Every structure is written in C-alpha cells, then in structure tokens.
What does this fold into?
Amino acid sequence: QSALTQPASVSGSPGQSITISCTGISGDFGSSKFVSWFQQHPGKAPKVMIYDVSNRPSGVSNRFSGSKSGNTASLTISGLQADDEADYYCSYTGSNTWVFGGGTKLTVL
Amino acid sequence: QVQLQESGPGLVKPSQTLSLTCTVSGDSINNNNYYWSWIRQPAGKGLEWIGRIYTRGSTNYNPSLKSRVTISVDTSKNQFFLELSSVTAADTAVYYCARKSPGYWYFDLWGRGTLVTVSS
It folds into this structure.
C-alpha cells in the first residue's frame, strides 16, 4: 500500500488550465489502474470526477481529465471556472484497502 | 434515487465506542455488485478510508484502525454499521458512508456525512 502525496495548493485564473499531481511514494500505486479523483466543496460530500485513471462519470464536464505515468497520476482542469474552486483528492485501491491523498486546495483567482 | 444517510450520536466520550448507522434507501443493500465503506474527515484535513463490507459479510479495514474497528451489515434493514472503540479526540471527524460503484473501482455514492465529536 502506498501513501499518496499531493501539493497543498494550486491556483489559476478563469479560463486557464491547471494540473494537480498525485504521487505514490511506494507500494503498488505505480501499477494500479484504479485511480480516482474527487472534488469536495466546503461542507459537502466528495464527488467523483475521474475514475480508472482517466474515465469521467456521466455528468462530469469534459474540462476534467486524468492521466498517469509511473508513480504519478494527474488531474487536469481546463477552462477554469469559479465553481471549480474546491479541494481535490486522489485515491486508489490496492491490497483490499483504499488510500486517499492529502488533498489539494484549488483557488480560482 | 439511491441515497445514503448516516445517523448516530454526535458526541462520544473518550475511551467509549463510537457507533454509527448508514441507511440505504432507493435500492437493496443486498447486491453483490456493491460494497459499502466508511470514510472520515477531521475538520480541515483530508479523507481517511476506515473500512468496507460486502453484504455477504466479508470485511477489510484500514490497517491503522483495524484493532478498533468493526463494520457490520443488516440486510433486512438495508443498513450497515460502524463501531470504533476506545475513541480519543483524534477520532473527532465527519464520518461518511459510501458505496463502491458496481463494476468500477470508485465511490460513486456518498452520504452527507455526520459530525462526531469526542469530548468529555
């Protein structure tokens, strides 16, 4: 099982693109296909934005995309909007357990 | 529309056992395509997976909490449960119940969360 490291914060202006990284320190993260990303607004439950590294659930904007290379997964948000301002968490499952990253606060300037 | 709803005491004394219920409405909990998890979030901090249960009864727990956690299910009531023993202030958090998506590996459905405070 691998701990997941995310930057504490990222920021961008409306219309810009940003990328949030999620790095697995050790373990089986590098080979996992089951990486998901969640968006969480203050006081709300998390909402999945990406699953299985790069798939979007129905209803999620195509401005959100995911990728993975080796031990690092990434979430990219293009065309930033004010409502994208939230906390974002990566997650993966391995060895019958789940791990979440520490979260990244996205600020839309 | 399937919904999850957490319930239980909002205040627990140190060293006691925290007990929460998650009620599933709009669908049967007794579906082998799902499993059900508890996840918590201390104020201002990140998410922590606590554990999961299949309706057949098999469980897996976060190794850091395993010695204190029990997750169980009552399919007749469409509910599953969390018990966390010997709580301390560090267990103060919003507790969420969640469902793993059928056929995919992510949590597609979450409850609103319930705040549990550990304090004397």
